[in-house]
Amino acid sequence: MIETIQSDVMVCGGGPAGIGAAVAAARLGRQVTLVERHPMLGGMGTAALVNNFCPAHFDRERFIIGGIFAELRDRLISRKALYAIRPTDTVHPRMEPYDPDVFAEEALAFCRDAGVDVLLERRVANADFQPALACAVTFDDGTQRKADVVVDATGDAEIAAAAGVPCLFGEDGTQAVMPLSLCYLMGPIDLDVAQREFPESVSYDPNLDEHYFYYTGANPRVLAWVADARRLGELSIPVKGIAAIMSLPGRPWIAMVNFGRVDIQDPTDPRLLADATDAGRRQVEEGIRFFRKHMPGMDRVELVQLAHRIGVRESRRIVGRYTLTGGDVRAGRQFDDCIAQCCYAIDVHHNGRDTTLLEPFMRGRHFDIPWRSLVPIAGPPNLVVAGRSIGAEREAMSSFRVSPSCMAIGQAAGAGAALALQSGGVIGDVDYDDLRRVLLDQGAIIA
Ligand SMILES: Cc1cc2nc3c(=O)[nH]c(=O)nc-3n(C[C@H](O)[C@H](O)[C@H](O)COP(=O)(O)OP(=O)(O)OC[C@H]3O[C@@H](n4cnc5c(N)ncnc54)[C@H](O)[C@@H]3O)c2cc1C
What we know:
Strand content: 15-25%
Bound molecules: flavin-adenine dinucleotide
Largest sheet: 7 strands, mixed
CATH topology of the largest domain: FAD/NAD(P)-binding domain
Number of strands: 21
Radius of gyration: 21 Å
Shape: globular
Low-confidence stretches: none
Structural class: alpha+beta
CATH superfamily of the largest domain: FAD/NAD(P)-binding domain
Helix content: 25-40%
Mean pLDDT: 96
Number of domains: 2
CATH architecture of the largest domain: 3-Layer(bba) Sandwich
């Protein structure tokens, strides 16, 4: 059934990229529909419980991502739902844990304030791009809406791939993708004990006036506990350390945990994803037993909430008009058609091994993301891609895939989609100078 509503811009996927795209296009006066298959917005950050901002936006001297991301971040800070980067974070870039429920609530209000028509619990089942530069989008309940321009913010380039846009998958040659992680919330953590016996893992947030658990990286004590547990057969998770344990702002005795690693061949295959989730659940049980035995202040922790969805780091990437390379990232390359900046590390979790390639950025440095990487090299002219599946080599993707940069990329995709409507909906005809002006007006930080 075709609903009477016709959208100027249809954004498929309500993760960080989709939120950025929808708000940007709506603020330019366009009628925007945002479709998300989950009951909440936020993508991996909420559904997969990876609820923190990796420091892609702070180069340890200044903030390099503004715009819609900064506005949403400010809303979380004013709700006391985010542990913000501290002025002293000039040596080790710090992540910013947030409350995933408040994020979902604020993201929805933010989109609605901008006039976006948000459809939750609806999956885009098909997008039929017609020659007359329109698209009939069919949802899984059989309803259909038409749109002039489509933003693919599915994370998997699902719409683009189905519409014939050339795509790459994982590693060149093997097509291997980074492993998945099933994240969860656990508690209660005794913060007094943790502070006494493992003081480096407890931080203080002046905005919330509370102490909280913050662990990430490679503390030698923790690495030794993990190595021992693996040797004794108590841990089968193929990883040397714990990626993250971070308290929820406002409820610091409960923490999100990223301590899992499940290999998969194709995370867009629902059967393989279900098997991987099953394996992830067993890792959660092992993880909790490990924390109870070893981690100070955690001897009574229980599972509080399992993520709705296992976390997917990598799948398809489109072939765009420009392929952002690992070399561009390492060189901190600047582009004449920059639409966003990023300073997060190259962070490739190895498939089939227990190692991770991590190359942090030097303080004060970043790289640019060019507009051409969002524009498919072929396929429907009224389609633009946002988020982790833009045109890039996987090493480059391993850096900008984090949520602040995905939201900034989304903002550019949404603004570009709105501007394209001035010239019949052709994304490739968007004038970069116009796009740049609009992004700067919307508070984006681009050199
Ligand atoms: C285990 C793990 C840990 C991570 N840790 C961090 C971290 O600490 N900090 C950080 O900043 N980033 C982290 N990331 C990366 C980051 O969360 C994601 O890469 C980022 O969310 C990507 O944004 P996106 O909008 O491109 O895609 P996603 O967040 O994947 O959002 C895509 C959205 O599209 C929806 N969708 C897909 N197909 C359809 C369809 N057909 N119809 C309707 N909706 C659809 C999905 O449900 C989803 O909500 C992590 C990722 C993983 C997997």
